[in-house]
Write a structure and sequence with these properties.
The structure is a homodimer of 340-residue chains.
Chain A (H helix, E strand, L loop, with lengths): L2 E8 L3 E8 L4 E8 L6 H19 L4 E9 L2 E3 L4 E4 L11 H9 L3 E5 H12 L8 E6 L3 E7 L2 E2 L31 H4 L1 H13 L4 H9 L5 H9 L3 H25 L3 E5 L6 H15 L1 H6 L24 E4 L6 H12 L2
Parallel strand pairs in A: 1-4, 4-7, 8-11, 11-12
Antiparallel strand pairs in A: 1-2, 2-3, 5-6, 8-9, 9-10
Helix pairs in contact in A: 3-11, 5-8, 7-8, 8-9
Chain lengths: 340, 340
């Protein structure tokens, strides 16, 4: 009987479930709204019911290895509890893993969503030909995940991979983490919007001002659209995004010398606008990168995924993520298949 | 018959050799001047003769596992050649490993000296109770070494651990690597001296000016002595040293979440002057550190090595190196014992 697992991506808005077998065949997918506002117990009820329906369906066809759950927030791996999770109020310090294991009678692995996304990209996405990989996820915040030897590198307390809080401007914008000038303050969607507002407030950004005035849902996406149309202030904002990511990448390349670094998350769709600055910073700030950079036009966004080369070529690859929002879902499933 | 290995620390000035057994008993030590000026072949002759004398002596008492050699510079692990080594002119692109293996008829492992030092501290020094460790070596430059799972983490091409080239001031002082504001430009002996000269040139550093004028061998050590005596400008220089190291450490803690980070090299003897700024930066810039910092007065230099705690306590330890200039020698011996 083949083995499969169930991956769960438990976001603040959506709850997604996929049953995936060892050959990475997706047997089934379910998307539910996360009734986060209705409270933790309601979300748990919904999740367990959906997982149970899926498991029942495959009961006689395949053997369930376990359930992997990606959640936003800091997880205590030892206890299987969330230490902090702004998007899931009421979940902190509740024995999530034990509770779900009890309800479903199967092994449950809880994982930070950025780590799960990195594992997903390693399994089926941009990192599939590599054993060692770092991923930076550019979303509302900036997350990260580190894969060493094919597995998530957790560090001592499961808190490794916080690449969004690497300092890129020592006296820069204050960060929610208590630091200053963290990458998250320059490379997240939130940061793009803040930098746009700062540019508007400075009086020098007429294009951004017009867009913000006419669009009640003015967003990072709108800033990107302006940048692509050639608006100088919008372009400058994405240059700062790329510079911040470039400094983080140079640090990772100098420190870890990995074969591949993957950039994902919603903001990564602005690749065309920010990637030239990434490669500029990387070449300047990392001898290791300069010595191992692939001979591919750095700014050619369409070729970014074609940059992925087989192991042994000794080239440092900077690649866009390939799985979009599915990365965390597949990574969660993979976790259960490989046992953590 | 017990097993032993021979470690070689091949510096630009000294060539040191130690025979060490698996229980870390030092069987023999030899120090020779490196006749670097007389050329590569002379140094190789001297080294091989000294190694052979030692090996002959233990021939019937212990089994030689191999020879580990720590060298300054970038090493191509695959070919066993130096790619670049400013302190050993004429050694680049010469088949060092193959040549020594041929001469001595035993296995030779070549390693970057900062990596060897990290492995030495892991084996017998500050990191001995830990499997995962990063070391920062503050010397003429700033080197680094990363130990994961008890072994040197080389990365794809053996260039990992270049912590001295992590950006700490994005628009800061130009670095020999081609970057700007690398940690090396603020935390090396060279940087201390440069910052002292800058302070003197600014006209605001009368204490430093006096010391520099009266001492023909004015050095980083002299700046440290002034700082300890309370000279404000000298203190400020070491505050900048600590800030740079603190930013690098915050990056490593946020990214890797290791249990221990070891600070070594000649400049680390100025610990009292720069360590308060390290802990200040770390607490501010790393949630991970703040969540795992040991309850020890951060600035208490005398307790720094007592901060080392056993595995499982889930505390992030920042410790001074314990082996001084022997770290690389022991690390080189260890390399041969553990087979790379």
């Amino acid at each position: 009987m083949p083995t499969y697992s169930i991956g769960v991506d438990l976001g603040g808005t959506n709850l997604r479930i996929a049953a995936v077998d060892e050959q990475a065949q997706v047997l089934e997918r379910v998307t539910l709204g996360t009734q986060a506002a209705l409270g933790r117990d309601r979300v748990l009820d919904d999740m367990c019911a959906a997982v149970r329906r899926t498991a029942d369906k495959y009961q006689n066809k395949a053997s369930l290895a376990g359930i992997g759950i990606g959640v936003p927030g800091i997880i205590d791996l030892r206890t299987g509890m969330l230490r902090e999770s702004p998007n899931l109020p009421g979940w902190a310090d509740y024995p999530v893993r034990v509770e779900i294991e009890k309800r479903l009678g199967t092994r449950v692995i809880l994982e930070n969503d950025a780590n799960a996304a990195a594992l997903g990209e390693k399994w089926l996405g941009a990192g599939r030909d590599f054993d060692d990989m770092a991923m930076i996820t550019l979303g509302t915040g900036v997350g990260g995940g580190l894969i060493l030897g094919g597995r998530i590198w957790h560090g001592m307390t499961g808190m490794a991979g916080e690449f969004g809080h690497i300092t890129v401007e020592p006296d820069g914008h204050p960060c929610g983490c208590g630091g200053r000038g963290c990458a998250e303050q320059y490379a997240s969607a939130t940061a793009v919007l803040r930098m746009a507002r700062e540019a508007i407030a400075s009086g020098r950004a007429s294009g951004l001002l017009r867009a913000a005035s006419s669009d009640p849902e003015f967003s990072a996406k709108a800033v990107y659209n302006l940048a692509i149309q050639g608006d100088q202030e919008a372009k400058e904002i994405f240059r700062r995004v790329g510079r911040a990511i470039g400094i983080v990448l140079a640090t990772l390349v100098n420190g870890l010398n990995l074969p591949i670094y993957v950039i994902g998350g919603g903001v990564s769709s602005a690749w065309e606008a920010f990637s030239p600055a990434i490669f500029e910073e990387l070449r300047q700030r990392s001898m290791v990168y300069a010595a191992t950079a692939p001979p591919v036009p750095a700014a050619d966004a369409r070729r970014a995924s074609a940059q992925v080369q087989p192991l042994g070529s000794s080239k440092t690859i900077i690649a866009r993520a390939m799985l979009g929002t599915d990365a965390g879902l597949y990574g969660a499933a993979r976790l259960a298949l490989q046992g953590g």
